[in-house]
Automatic annotation (TrEMBL):
Its cofactor is Zn(2+). Its EC number is 3.2.1.-. Binds 1 zinc ion per subunit. Keywords: Disulfide bond, Glycosidase, Hydrolase, Metal-binding, Signal, Zinc. Residues 1-23 form the signal peptide. Belongs to the glycosyl hydrolase 38 family. This is Alpha-mannosidase. The lineage of its organism: Eukaryota, Viridiplantae, Streptophyta, Embryophyta, Tracheophyta. SUPFAM superfamilies: Families 57/38 glycoside transferase middle domain (SSF88688), Galactose mutarotase-like (SSF74650), Glycoside hydrolase/deacetylase (SSF88713). Residues 356-430 form the Glycoside hydrolase family 38 central domain. The keyword Transmembrane does not apply.
Amino acid sequence: MMGAATVLFIVVVAAIWVEQSESEYIEYNTTQRIVNGQINVHLVPHSHDDVGWLKTVDQYYVGANNSIRGACVQNVLDSVISALLEDKNRKFIYVEMAFFQRWWRQQSKAKKIKVKELVDSGQLEFINGGMCMHDEATPHYIDLIDQTTLGHQFIKDEFGKTPRVGWQIDPFGHSAVQAYLLGAELGFDSLFFARIDYQDRAKRLKEKTLEVIWQGSRTLGSSSQIFTGIFPRHYDPPDGFTFEINDVSPPIQDDILLFDYNVQERVNDFVAAALYQANVTRTNHIMWAMGTDFRYQYADSWFRQMDKFIHYVNQDGRVNALYSTPSIYTDSKYAANEQWPLKVDDFFPYADHPNAYWTGYFTSRPALKGYVRVMSGYYQAARQLEFFKGRNASGPNTNSLAEALAIAQHHDAVSGTERQHVAADYALRLSLGYKEAEVLVASALSFLVNQKLSSQQEKPVTDLQQCPLLNISYCPSSEATLTNGKSLVIVVYNPLAWKREEVIRIPVSTIDVSVKDSAGNEVESQILPLSNATLILRKYYVKAYLGMSPGAEPKYWLAFPVSVPPLGFSTYIVSKPRQTGDRSTISKVHRSEGSTNNSIEVGQGSLKLLYSADEGKLTHYVNSRNLVKASVEQTYSYYSGNDGTDKDPQASGAYVFRPNGSFPIKSDRQESFTVLSGPVLDEVHQQLNPWISQITRIFKGKEHAEVEFTVGPIPVDDNIGKELITQFTTSLETNRTFYTDSNGRDFIKR
């Protein structure tokens, strides 16, 4: 017995020693190959790096504020580049140039040479290539173009490459403008994303229509279409194949000296997941997005496992695995010569489960949305003036504002879904960018104005000031008292390519003013009083913005029409009139109290609005030019937000709009109703309740009305979240058809 046991022990030890000598090092075969007639699994390593969300863009980059989220994009890029240099077959795609630019600036010349070699070889590929992965619901198409151009210009300048593929994997729904303008017309060969309505995804999985030809514009037809792929799940790998350092997916353990050897088991898992996806995908090519948010901070943990999977899966032979990119995958799809389903219109609204429609962000953080839009318009004008005068690379220039606007298009920025301190960071960047651009605009306009004045042998303008706080009725330059023969010169610039005739309004401290154009001709003007709501806002926000209370309050608006040539400017002079009859017309005031008419008519041109004299409510609109008279009623209501305490825990919030119901807001008394009329415009001032007031304006010669409402503070002492709306009810026969905006460029029929 003793001898037999001894012999057995010696045999086992000898066998182990032989295996150990063979398993010291395994050279994994990761050579890229496409196998015809077999399922090809394209493994696409990526990291989805939000340009701000729970942390600011710079906090995400350097890895600060990790108590919120352990994310450091600098680590991602450092780690990925090192991993790619270890094996020429490995690949990685990168998307957000706002981060890559930050990283690139910090690299040595030697490192940059190596990275350029990775890009030239196709190991590192820039996909999408904008400064951020922009939102698709709330931005204007001009901003989408600008932020994409900024990123692509960086890639072109540094690497001589142009991205081929759109990668909008995380935005909360997808617009038709994205398909054709930021896809087909941008020159992309394909577009990929993850988020579509859960019901739509289920239907497409069943019908094998996750990959389509998306025709984004009915007008442009086939020239607007792009091959589009929708992921069968999220933008992460199938369950069991995530390999960040703290992930729970079992790694391939292929060392027979260690416990839990599992090569065949993990290969079987891989093949099963591949076959499942192949059954819902056309052609024999499928793509796995190998990554998710802020992954590859330790890239070896991913690449080590993918090396093993490619090696062992290909040895197994049932499917073929390869390192790939969306560009390689797209080429394979094109080569398959498949007939693809046609998709038109867009992918809105998006819901990821019942009662969870992601439409709340359409209106989240409206102040930031408004700031982005205003700064966008200012940037377009500043860029033109920068060109007219001549660009100064050392400053001041528009670069900072361009970069601030670019990252503000991120799908967790202008969307309003970011944390408060992140929203403040976006606003601060816009403010700093504006400050620099403001200096440029003043300098360029002075240059252009003085060129004109010089030709007329007049004194030059030396100090042009702007009024960025006009939205809260604050403009020190126009509020100053004009004494000792001083005048206020107003320069109005038109950045559009057609002549514009508009009415501008500036706050003034006196009614004793008149307006002339640059030729000295009298310009018809009108004085209107500032409303109480306007004065309250002014006092509060000027102090918040400047850190001090404003001085003497202006009492009036001065309104006058301007005519401005395309891509040009006009000047107007505001001064103290020499004769009483020359001064601006003071608005006539009509109050609803004591009116003997049943209705009050407002408007002097083709368009007129009719209000009931007893209640002060809008009842009809009339367009005498079109011979149209129709009933119209305006009301205010609010949606009460669901707090998620019922059977379905989904609450209403920044992302999801889930109301409990809508409730009318009624005045507990007759509405305060005042009509101001004059030669330039008519205004209707209404105070609906202590926290809602409204001004409706009808300009002489215009066929539209302008509604300005002031709301707040919204009472929440009943602990009910409220989303306010105003609703216009008309007699139009619409057959339940309406149109929604698509990034300010198209309308989508619903």
